[in-house]
Write a structure and sequence with these properties.
- There is one protein chain.
- The protein is an alpha/beta fold and 954 residues long.
- It has three domains: 324 residues, Alpha-Beta Complex (Spore Coat Polysaccharide Biosynthesis Protein SpsA, Chain A), CATH 3.90.550.10; 299 residues, no CATH class; 115 residues, no CATH class.
- It is 52% helix and 10% strand.
- The protein contains 37 helices and 19 strands.
- The strands form four sheets. Strands 1, 2, 3, 4, 5, 6, 7, 10, 11 and 12 form a ten-stranded mixed sheet that branches. The protein has a five-stranded mixed sheet with strand order 16-15-17-19-18, sandwiched between helices.
- Helix 2 links the parallel strand 2 and strand 3.
- Helix 17 packs across helix 18.
- The protein is globular.
- This is Glycosyltransferase.
């Protein structure tokens, strides 16, 4: 029987699809010589349906795998010896002409040994599922189709492929037997890819025949039904099959690379699933990898079997595999989808609240979204540039960003000066500072690294390990990021105030005005990088906090984790931010309790804000707990950057000026007046009052903290108030924007002309705020980012100090008459992060006594102590005190050393240096807290990420 065809139907709990499948088999226009059916332990009426249609059915247990069922069917067909085997699933319904098209293609191409049909989705019937299939280097099943692509004949050409789905696969019986059937190690998924790959290396040709159509429900893949083989872990079986297929079929020379790549890729995929809160799939990914890597003999045995049947070089199969760049494109697509989902979630708050209000009596019914037609979408795509050029707001935003980047030109290269200390050589220095529990700075200290060191280390690592690039990116992008965040926040606030939302020109004014706050405040020019970052981050925190008003409790909890994570980042750079958030939270809870009695009884109402506040001390525990135990509690009230911090009076706070490098103060006064005038329109008076309450809380906190004086070992400073000034300015911007929205919506009749006159005057004043600030920034403003301070230490001493922590340099400044101060330099000098550690470290009184004895009555014993303390050089920078220098010249054990400046004096300590001079104890508490912090960040990131259902979307 040279052209005979036998159909092999495998069923398992497919009663819902089998009637259509049976009818599809009976209606084939090409003759089927015999139908062999194998039922794998169906609990419904599947076996009876098949038996009634085709006679006998082979009933086996539910633990029978698909390859075993196919092998059993081949045994039943051994006597008939058909030329072709047509494999069908119980959820795969062929069109009447499917088999005829497959046989016609086989006749046209005698070399074709395996043929597959076009698979379309069942029951939608038009959506394409597969036209042949291949596999990427990461194990992804690739079809070459877009997600949700419809069949319009765009892929209707017969072509060679790596593999075809077993649902409708027509294969020569001799080839199936030659290759040993389907691999029993692939019980349900992936056996088609493996079979096609083995067929290709054995010299057989696989083609796809689009003229043959089979409708496939993909019941097992989509989880519509469960079998004893898959259970609840469908993804585990799919991923294990993909990894197995790659490992047993890859070229031998690529196997070591493939093992490492798949292991590393699995870790990344686990992280990705955790980010979208798919914990089950993440665990399945990890379990699949462990299952295979713990059984290397299974992989090696399968590779030997394939090698024995190989007649084609493995490299010749490469064109049938997915391109090497495809996994990276999928990774970018995934990141894009994740970012898009994350940025759009909080925006839904206003929409959902309006929908809830609309469903109430008199609300006009639920809002119905209007979807654009295909013509509208095509027209939109072709007119993007034209609409951009004719949209003043869009052009204004683009011009604003460009000018802001021009104004930030001072940060395009290495920056230092003002409050910004020199940056370390690489990100590794920040990582070391973060994980150390004892720092070899000065005479050694256990004061923890500032909390901002971790995010800076992460950013620098992502940017190639360059701290200069990380700090430059922070300063350059502060204004654009703040603009974006303020736009999103004001847009949602506008929709909460009125269904139509705020006009785009008003959003432009408000977001541009706020985005310039870190610049006009002087924080940017003074190198107050912490204030700059929290200013850019604040609208994002506020945007996330709007989720607390969402009607859905689950969304409120998710908003809590997002807000907590962002608030943690802000608090790392400005610790006062958490205190302000806590006070503001108490005020809001008290007000809500007074207005809506009984609302606070619901845990899902007060729980999310409390959780957001509670996340911060947990994630920052490696910083604040050691700070308290090491006597550095002042760190909880200090801003990032060099000390002392600038002092702010009432006028500075009102105008938002935190440094003398800020823009003219009248810009801030105009904004304050605009926010005050925003109380006039009745329509928006309540939300404007809310903004003023926020501003009042910031002012009260600033007044209280302004009374605090912190006496540190090296200086005296006040508490960090810069964040409170930024928060107050943000509240004033929002109040002014809401008031303008109310002014535009209120008034009618005879008052229209008066209202318009007032609006013109107010608008003219309002425009001067962002225009004046931007012009001041672009022209040059004031900045200290190129200030460099000469340490007065000879270069050869600096090089020697880089040899180890024991090669310290004792630097003594001043004179006997006015007082002397000393510092100890080790390594590459004091860099960003280290300066705050030293500032918070208490005085080492024992070493102070040694230095006092050195400058007063130096003796050989004092010099010996310098060696034990790890001091190699003593330097008196210009102008050196003559009396002190004379005493050191006459001291045994101090050898005069050269200095670049004649008025600078230096000596080398001629004593053995103690290599463990600045060593200290290891803190297991900090190590435990670092582990807690890392785990906490991962958990919170997973909880705040948007939820996706990838299987449902597939």
């Amino acid at each position: 029987m040279n052209s005979s065809v036998a159909a092999l139907l495998v069923s398992h709990d497919g009663e819902r699809w089998l009637p259509a499948v049976i009818e599809g088999l009976r209606s084939q226009t090409a003759p089927i010589d015999r139908v062999v059916a194998v039922d794998t332990g169906s609990k419904d009426g599947s076996a009876d349906l098949v038996e009634a249609a085709f006679g006998a059915v082979e009933r086996v247990s539910g633990a029978t795998t698909f390859p075993a069922a196919v092998a059993l069917g081949l045994e039943r067909l051994a006597a008939d010896a058909p030329e072709w085997i047509w494999v069908l699933h119980d959820d795969a319904n062929p069109e009447p002409g499917a088999l005829e098209a497959l046989l016609a293609a086989a006749a046209a191409d005698p070399d074709a040994d395996v043929l597959g049909p076009k698979l379309r989705e069942w029951p939608s019937l038009k959506r394409l599922l597969e036209l042949g299939v291949t596999i990427s280097g990461t194990g992804r099943r690739e079809t070459g189709l877009e997600r949700g692509e419809y069949d319009q004949g765009q892929h209707d050409e017969v072509r060679t492929v790596l593999a075809v789905n077993t649902a409708g696969m027509l294969v020569r019986r001799s080839v199936l037997e030659e290759l040993g059937g389907l691999d029993p190690q692939l019980p349900i998924f992936g056996n088609d890819l493996d079979f096609g790959w083995r067929a290709a290396t054995a010299g057989h040709k696989t083609v796809i025949v689009p003229q043959a159509v089979v409708f496939h429900a993909e019941a097992a893949h989509r989880g519509v039904r469960r079998t004893p083989i898959t259970g609840r872990h469908t993804h585990y079986q799919e991923r294990r099959a993909a990894l197995y297929t790659l490992l047993v079929n890859s070229q031998a020379r690529r196997l070591p690379f493939q093992v490492v790549r798949l292991g590393f890729g699995t870790v990344l995929r686990v992280i990705g699933f955790l980010l979208v809160r798919s914990v089950g799939e993440a665990l399945d990914e990890l379990a699949a990898l462990v299952s295979l890597y713990s059984s290397p003999r299974e992989i090696l045995a399968a590779r030997r079997t394939r090698h024995d049947r190989q007649v084609v070089a493995a490299g010749d199969v490469r064109p049938l595999l997915a391109p090497a760049w495809l996994p990276y494109r999928h990774g970018l697509d995934f990141l894009g989808d994740l970012v898009s989902a994350a940025t759009n979630q909080a925006q839904d708050v206003a929409e959902r609240r309006r929908a809830v209000a609309a469903e109430r009596p008199g609300g006009g019914g639920p809002a119905r979204p209007v979807r654009p037609s295909d013509d509208d979408m095509l027209e939109e795509d072709t007119g993007v540039l034209a609409r951009f050029l004719t949209n003043p707001v869009a052009v204004g935003l683009a011009l604003f960003v460009v000018l802001a980047l021009v104004g930030a030109r001072a940060a395009f290269g290495p920056v230092t000066g003002g409050a910004l200390s020199p940056l370390p050589a690489g990100a590794a220095d920040w990582w070391r500072l973060q994980v150390e529990s004892w720092h070899p700075l000065g005479q050694g200290t256990g004061v923890p690294a500032p909390a901002y060191v971790l995010p800076l280390a992460l950013l620098a690592t992502l940017l190639g390990g360059s701290p200069d690039l990380a700090m430059g990116a922070l300063l350059v992008l502060a204004v654009p990021v703040g603009l974006w965040g303020a736009w999103r926040f004001l847009r949602v606030v506008g929709r909460l105030v009125a269904p139509a939302g705020a006009p785009r020109w008003l959003l432009f004014w408000g977001s541009a005005t706020y985005a310039l706050v870190p610049v006009t405040s002087g924080a940017w020019g003074d190198g107050r990088f912490g204030t700059v970052l929290v200013a850019a981050l604040l609208p994002w925190v506020a945007h996330a906090a709007l989720g607390f008003a969402d009607p859905d409790a689950d969304r409120r909890w998710r908003a809590a984790w997002r807000t907590g994570l962002l608030l943690t980042l802000g608090t790392a750079f400005a610790p006062v931010a958490w205190l302000f958030a806590a006070v503001l939270g108490l005020v809001v809870v008290a007000a809500a309790t007074a207005v809506v009695r009984g609302a606070m009884k619901d845990r899902s109402v007060w729980g999310p804000p409390a959780a957001a506040l509670g996340v911060v001390p947990v994630l920052l525990s490696p910083w604040w707990i050691p700070a308290l135990t090491r006597g550095a509690a002042e760190a909880l009230l200090l801003d990032a950057g060099r000390l002392p911090l600038p002092t702010l009076d009432t006028l500075n706070l009102l105008t938002g000026r935190v440094a003398d490098t800020g823009a003219p103060g009248w810009l801030g006064l105009v904004l304050a007046v605009l926010a005050l005038l925003a109380l006039v329109p009745r329509f928006t008076r309540i939300p404007v009052l809310v903004c003023w309450i926020v501003a009042l809380v910031a002012a009260v906190c600033a007044a209280v903290l302004g009374t605090v004086t912190l006496d540190l070992a090296a200086t005296t400073t006040g508490a960090g108030l810069s964040f409170l000034a930024v928060a107050l300015q943000g509240a004033l911007v929002v109040a002014a924007a809401i008031g303008a929205q109310g002014l535009a919506a209120s008034g009618s009749g005879t008052r229209v002309s008066v209202r318009r006159t007032v609006a013109v005057v107010v608008a003219a004043a309002a425009v001067t705020v962002p225009l004046g600030g931007l012009a001041w920034f672009v022209v040059g403003g004031q900045d200290r980012l190129d200030d460099s301070v000469d340490s007065g230490i000879p270069a050869y001493m600096v090089q020697s100090s880089m040899l180890g922590d024991a090669h310290g340099i004792l630097v003594i400044r001043g004179d006997v008459e006015d007082g002397l101060t000393y510092t100890v330099r080790r390594g590459d000098g004091v860099t960003l992060g280290e300066d705050e550690i030293l500032a918070l470290t208490g005085e080492d009184t024992s070493f102070t006594r040694v230095v006092r004895a050195l400058v007063a009555r130096p003796t050989a014993e004092v010099v010996d102590e310098l060696g034990r303390q790890g001091i190699e050089y003593v330097v008196l920078p210009s102008p050196a005190d003559g009396n002190v220098a004379a005493g050191l010249d006459a001291t045994a054990g101090l050898v005069q050393a050269s200095a670049e400046d004649r008025s600078t004096r230096a000596w080398q300590v001629d004593r053995a240096l103690d290599p463990g001079a600045v060593d200290g104890p290891r803190s297991w508490l900090r190590i435990a807290l670092l582990v807690l912090q890392g785990a906490g960040i991962v958990v919170v990131a997973v909880l705040c990420a948007p939820t996706t259902n990838r299987r449902a979307d597939a």
